[in-house]
């Protein structure tokens, strides 16, 4: 009779049970079960080489006529579907508006987008000088949209420099058009982009004065009053 469970020898009853079965353990004396594994498939049988051809005009990949004749119906259909997927993907990559692999960083800011932004900003400045403030606001807005939608791989300093100047000019146009809330919003963004730039604080002071939130002494020139505000904000 096998011994009972004991804390001094917790496996005694198991050993006794295996001995009573002839020492064969759980398999009744027949030893450990044997697992038969299938023979490894040769690598050559897993790889199928096809003769492909590329159309020089359309750049489409297709199965050559010699290989197509030796394929089974179901295999040929699967292969044609795979080639169609590859051709669609290659055409999409060729026609993509932006490259998927970022180009190396440009040390000199010289690209069509920068030229377009500069041209829009200059047109806005000309409209502002001609007192066409609404037109200037529209041109500055288009320039700001072009600057803020640069590709992610381009240096962020370009966006910061361009937006700070454009929004500062648009804040001036808003102030000249008595649109004080819009001018204040642009001035706040300019300050966030370039905190130590005095023009952003000047635009904010002008907008706050237009909203009636700040008043300057009548005997104090505006530039002296705004300079004191700039010093206080920057400090």
Specify the CATH class of the domain at 112-234: Mainly Alpha
Number of DSSP-assigned strands: 2
Helix content: 55-70%
- Mean pLDDT equals 76
Structural category is mainly alpha
Organism: Puccinia striiformis
Protein name: Translocation protein sec72
GO molecular function: Hsp90 protein binding
Keywords: Repeat, TPR repeat
How would you describe this structure to a colleague?
The chain is an all-alpha fold. The chain has a domain at 112-234: Tetratricopeptide repeat domain (Serine Threonine Protein Phosphatase 5, Tetratricopeptide repeat, Alpha Horseshoe), CATH 1.25.40.10. The protein has ten helices and two strands. The protein is elongated, with a radius of gyration of 39 Å. Residues 21-30 have a biased composition (Gly residues). One of its GO terms (molecular function) is Hsp90 protein binding. Residues 1-20 have a biased composition (Polar residues).
How would the blueprint of this fold be written?
Blueprint: H1 12-20, H2 43-46, E1 52-54, E2 61-63, H3 65-69, H4 73-95, H5 112-129, H6 133-148, H7 156-176, H8 180-193, H9 198-211, H10 222-234
Antiparallel strand pairs: 1-2
Helix pairs in contact: 5-6, 5-7, 6-7, 7-8, 7-9, 8-9, 9-10
């Amino acid at each position: 009779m096998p011994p009972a469970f004991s804390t001094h020898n917790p496996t005694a009853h198991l050993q006794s049970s295996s001995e009573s079965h002839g020492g064969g353990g759980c398999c009744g004396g027949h030893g450990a079960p044997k697992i038969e594994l299938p023979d490894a498939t040769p690598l050559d049988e897993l790889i199928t080489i096809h003769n492909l051809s590329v159309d020089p005009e359309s750049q489409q990949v297709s199965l050559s006529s010699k290989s197509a004749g030796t394929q089974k119906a179901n295999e040929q259909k699967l292969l044609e579907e795979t080639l169609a997927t590859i051709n669609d993907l290659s055409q999409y990559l060729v026609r993509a508006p932006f490259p998927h692999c970022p180009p190396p960083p440009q040390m000199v800011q010289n690209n069509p987008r920068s030229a377009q932004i500069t041209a829009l900003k200059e047109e806005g400045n000309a409209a502002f000088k001609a007192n066409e403030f609404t037109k200037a606001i529209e041109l500055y807005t288009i320039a700001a949209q072009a600057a803020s939608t640069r590709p992610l791989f381009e240096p962020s300093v370009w966006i910061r420099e361009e937006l700070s100047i454009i929004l500062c000019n648009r804040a001036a146009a808003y102030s000249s058009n008595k649109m004080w809330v819009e001018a204040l919003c642009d001035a706040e963004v300019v300050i966030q982009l370039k905190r130590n730039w005095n023009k952003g604080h000047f635009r904010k002071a002008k907008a706050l004065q237009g909203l009636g939130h700040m008043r300057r002494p009548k005997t104090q020139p505006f530039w002296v009053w705004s300079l004191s505000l700039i010093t206080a904000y920057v400090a």
